């Protein structure tokens, strides 16, 4: 196939823009879970009702992915990423205004989900079309997504403890505006066609991609369910760690701040998982890397429902190492199973299933938490992972004569 190799300067600009945007796309959505307990107190509502405020944010984050992907294929990634930063900032400022209103906050969070949903189809489409080493670039890009996931909780916990809920949303809006400065210096350069034997796209047919969409939907339930639950779960389960930190430091710590710091610690493991996943994706069969990572998750998430304090922290680090480590593998599979000119649309369709349908986990968590306790959420995620591994097995069976290409450059 014909592909494009960007100049070194353009490649660096693309990487800087997509890494910052990926960071913010996840950072925007992971600030809210760290504020669930403070918001439930501030608004005088139950924990389940506070969690439910985020439902439309997570749903629209996924459901808008396909139209954003179609728009990126039509108008280009730069225009869409500009809208991403501007719209996200405005939504955060509105959240600061309506922080005392359940409905106002829910609408503001929905807006944040809509605009934050632009990044994945636009940004990943840009990477898959322009960058020569997809798996490795996706791994580096994924590190910044993981940084956004890992640091959102401690950001929210620290500024809420020091300045209050409204300040958290104002600062979040200002951080989103910073992306406009990077974009202002980027103009797509003239493309030079060259013949490439690397970075090929395999036309494997419709059925494997449909199966992959089902897998990614289940992975989205695992991702959204765990990231939404972990901060509150740690605050309830890690009382021993809180007592130790308070006694050793002598500082006026809050349980929420210690829980968000613990959440940041375990999500940081996902950074190394991304790099690990990107490396093995270049060396081995993508499908077997994918099933290997998800198989390890099953016993780990089961044990998370049975532990507390330090063992829970260790298990949480293992869980997010492997869960987030599957992302460069998964995103490379999307690129391999779809034609290049439709990459943004394919990623858009992916994130409808991953984040849109995955947002149903918000409703499921509320039902499970109210009926069986928060520990049962992790048993539910364990069951989802068992089904997920089974469907990956089906993908391997269906594509046994159509191995997705590995990169050799």
List keywords for this structure.
409 residues; mainly alpha; Growth Hormone, Chain: A; two-stranded antiparallel sheet; 20 helices; 2 strands; 1% strand; globular
Chain-wise SSE layout:
Layout: E1 2-4, H1 8-34, H2 36-43, H3 47-52, H4 55-63, H5 65-75, H6 77-97, H7 102-116, H8 119-130, H9 134-163, H10 165-177, H11 179-184, E2 193-195, H12 206-237, H13 239-249, H14 255-283, H15 286-304, H16 309-325, H17 327-336, H18 343-356, H19 360-372, H20 376-398
Could you walk me through the main structural features you see in this protein, from its secondary elements to its overall organization?
The protein has 409 residues and is mainly α. The protein has one domain: Up-down Bundle (Growth Hormone, Chain: A). Helices cover 80% and strands 1% of the residues. Strands 1-2 form a two-stranded antiparallel ribbon. Helix 4 packs parallel to helix 7 (102-116) and helix 6 runs antiparallel to helix 10 (165-177). The longest helix has 32 residues, at 206-237. Residues 192-203 have low confidence and may be disordered.
How would you concisely characterize the structure shown here?
The protein is 80% helix and 1% strand. The protein is mostly helical and 409 residues long.
Task: Report the average pLDDT across residues.
Answer: 83
Q: What's the alpha carbon Rg, rounded to whole Å?
A: 20 Å
Helical residue percent? over 70%
CATH topology: Growth Hormone, Chain: A
CATH-wise, what's the superfamily? MFS general substrate transporter like domains
Strand arrangement in the largest pleated sheet: 1-2
What kind of assembly state do the chains in view correspond to?
single chain
Record field, number of beta strands: 2
